[in-house]
Amino acid sequence: MIQKSYEENGIAENQQLIEELKSLRREVAELKTEKAAFQAQKKLLEHSVATIIRASPEEEMLKATLQDTLDVCSQLTGAQKGSLFLLDRQGAVTDSILTQRETALKERDRLIGCVLAQGLAGWVYRQRQIGLIVDTETDDRWLQLPNQPYTVRSALAVPILRNEEVLGILTLLHQEPGHFSPEIAHLMQLTADQIAIVLENAQLYGKIETYSKALNYELEKGRQIQRDFLPNEIPQLPNLEIATFFSPARQVAGDFYDVFMLPGDYLGLVIADVADKGVGAALFMALFRSLIRIFSGQISLGGLSIIANEAELSILLESEMATNLYQINPLKAVALTNNYIAQQHAQMSMFATLFFGVLDPATGILTYINGGHETLFVVGDTGIKASLNSTGPAVGMMPNMKFKIQQVQLEPGDILIGYTDGVTEARSPSGKFFTEKRLRSLLDQSALLPSPLLERITTDLFAHISNAPQYDDITMLIVQRKASD
Questions:
Q1: For the chain, is the Cβ count within 10 Å smaller at the N or the C terminus?
Q2: Where in the chain is CATH 3.60.40.10?
Q3: Over the stretch 372-401, which tens digit does the pLDDT of each residue have?
């Protein structure tokens, strides 16, 4: 009997152990299922976070991405409601995103103000840490709003932090107590950390956009300065035909051309390129143009006299050159402009390559100074017949520089073409320069009138540039002495 009793007790104990083991296995299986579900949720959320990181920083795209992220967080955590507040440095709400999109704007602002002032979101903002409420009925961090249309028993609020600055707050709500676990809270904090990176990038993008707009405004202002100082009207003379071209670069530079009448019915021709880029170059372009016009018109400026001294001029003139003072005096403007810039603005280190010619329309004699500028060409029926090379340094580098005056005869039908280095140094998409050689080849072809010649050059030039950026201003000045009827 005793033996039988021991056996029965042993069987019962074994049965109990078996049941306990089964129960443990079930619990383990449930835990594994929960863990698998949690891991699945984590992977889905990580995928969503990856989407956030790749999101466009532009405002509308960013807001749409944050809305999607809030929706995914709510779905994966089982939250019934959620919100995402974006804050400025003073803690004021700059934007809000809710899972319940139908909430009226006025009601939304009222709710946000309350919870930030007294509720869980405000506590999270002040403490800069996760706020996990297991049961709202026993946690004084929860603010029960009057006439609240829904029940909340558990809540999770996560700060979106970047370098101790609260950029926003992610809040999730549920009507059952204990719905959000510490594991979920940790996962949401990881998500918030990634959102913080995106928001910081968006802030940087906003600063860059602001700077870019300001820069573009300044560049446009510089371009306007350039346009305003180009001649509105070209003098029309019966025996001359003139064509001009100006294409500003994306970045403001300092090219300009000018055509104007001088005393004695002579014609002033200028093409120049101010060193450097930006608004400063555009301003100095305006200064150079004004000085050339003022000095060549025999006007005194700042005590600088422009009256020519024949003895002094003889040093600069070729021995066989006609010394017509109406044609020579204006060219003193180059030396006077050089001294004014070098003396008054030396600290700016600004200078310009500049060609200034004085043309006698009646005879075709062109008297000129080429201050370090690109070679100009005289083109006849058979191509290039003369090259007007540099006769002195760039203008404005140092005071009292010497500039040699030279002359060339434009025969009836001849064309004078001047250009800036934006033509010869224009780059193709592969980085190849247009080159002076290529320009000369276009000029050596059959002679054309100024406008068709200009079209021939610009067509070939912009075909060369194609879709590459235009790095420098492109400027051309073409003058033809018409053949007699």
A1: C
A2: 230-481
A3: 999 999 999 889 999 999 999 999 999 999
